[in-house]
Write the structure tokens for this entry.
Amino acid sequence: MTSRMHIGFAAPFRGGSARVLAGAALVVCQVFGSGCSKEVSDRDIKTIPLADAARLHARAQSQPLEALFIDPRSASLFEQSHIAGARHMQFTADDTDRGTDPAIDRFKTLVVYGNDPGSAIARAAAKRMMTIGYGKKKVKLMPEGLRAWDRAGLPVEGAQAP
């Protein structure tokens, strides 16, 4: 009597079963977001430091198409406080088919921010914007977020600061 031991994940899957499993994984990646996207990865995200974002924001006051700040947080958080002049945008897994908005695409730089450096929603929004066509060179992530912006005394709008 001989015994076979399967070592590793793929050993029990032969032929069609492995293809079905791989197909299911691909569907999950496509349905549940850009984390599996081959086109845009975390390495593609370009960051902009707080000081540079502040200078860009100030320059945009006299050159309006220079930059648009994008706030992907919830609508209620946006209403409470946001960077002055920012636009609220939320994204879903279905957004890859919607394409770009010409009113947003006309801006030279799109700066995405969240609450703080741990904001997964800001990182995901930056990736999603690149995936739907805004361009890897145009989209920037300000990782410090709204809290650091507010602490630096930079312009914030809304009912209350974070």
Summary: The CA atoms of residues 40 and 67 lie 22 Å apart. The two ends are 69 Å apart (CA to CA). The longest strand covers residues 67-71. Residues 16-31 form the longest helix (16 residues).
